[in-house]
Amino acid sequence: MKTTKTVLVFTALMLSVIITNAQGLKGGDKKKNSSDSKPKCFDENSHIINLGVGLGGVNYYSGYSGYGYNYKVSPAFSLSYEQGYPKKLGPGYLGLGAYLGFQSASSTYNYFYDDNGYKGNYYYKHSWNNYMVAARGAYHFDFLMAEKAELYAGLLAGLRIQSYNYETSNPDPKAYNYRFTGSNVYPAYSLFIGGRWYFVPKVALFAEVGYGISYVTGGVSFKF
Questions:
Q1: 176-183, Cβ contacts within 8 angstroms, sequence gap of 24 or more
Q2: How many domains does the chain have?
Q3: Are 107 and 61 in contact (CB under 8 A)?
Q4: What torsion do the CA atoms of 85, 88, 89, 93 make, to the nearest 10 degrees?
Q5: Residue 158 resides in a domain
Q6: Which DSSP letter does residue 143 get?
Q7: Neighbour count for residue 203 (Cβ, 10 Å)
Q8: Which of 216, 215, 159 is CA-nearest to residue 9?
Q9: For residue 217, which of 103, 95, 82, 97 has the smallest C-alpha distance?
Q10: Which of 77, 82, 123, 149 sits 20 to 30 Å CA-CA off 105?
Q11: What is the C-alpha separation between 31 and 53, in angstroms, rounded?
């Protein structure tokens, strides 16, 4: 809970900084006749790589996190790429790209077993790995964009691939199978909003709210 609150506070602060910087458009930039003449965070020539970490994650395994379970979830790591569409579309620019995400979780339960001639302290453990592969597009409005900061919104669509593993130290065949592995594929899609602030010309901090591997993601963007 504490890490989730930390990420939400970080995201709120990031979006506040981005909005404050973007408001510069309403001041000195009014003297310019064309928005196309102003330096922009994103245009048709932009190529951006985002490295993100999400800690306000989606819990697919809540049934295994109750009393007596040793439940662990890794941070949600993501890598995404975005490049500008060759032509300006309407009051802004369209960015198209791809998204990769990963998160793992495990749940271990320790218990005492006495049956069928077997007696002792044993465990059973469930573990999951989630991989997300998706295409995503984001629209960057001129009026929400400054030289060093911007707000954007977009859509993600793809697949979430989940692998599953079960094992137990209990030697009694009557209890459970010793080991089981499997995998499933699920559709993944989401709307998202985000913001980016360049603290140096080619490197920015970004924050996004929307479902990737996690609901809230923050990280670093590299423009080239």
A1: 176/124
A2: 1
A3: yes
A4: 60
A5: yes
A6: G
A7: 11
A8: 216
A9: 103
A10: 82
A11: 39
- Nearest CA to 218 out of 83, 104, 80 is that of 80
The tens place of each residue's pLDDT in the chain, 224 residues long, gives: 444 454 445 445 554 544 555 444 444 444 443 445 677 899 999 999 999 999 765 566 666 767 788 988 899 999 999 999 999 999 999 999 999 999 999 999 999 999 989 999 999 999 999 999 999 999 999 999 999 999 999 999 999 999 999 999 999 988 776 778 999 999 999 999 999 999 999 999 999 999 778 889 999 999 99
Q: How far apart are CA 46 and CA 169, in angstroms?
A: 53
Can you list the alpha helix ranges (DSSP code H) found in the chain?
2-22
* Residue type (1 letter), 72: K
Distances (CA, A) of 4 to 8, 69, 217: 6, 20, 11
Contact 204/46 with Cβ under 8 angstroms?
Answer: no
Sign for the pseudo-dihedral over CA of 12, 52, 94, 203: positive
**Token digits of residue 168:** 């137990």
| Residue 26 per-residue DSSP state | G
Residue 202 belongs to a domain: yes
Domain membership flag for residue 189 = yes
Q: Answer yes or no: is 34 within a domain.
A: no
Q: How many residues does the structure list for the chain? A: 224
Q: Which domain holds residue 79?
A: 2-29+39-223
The SS3 of residue 202 is coil
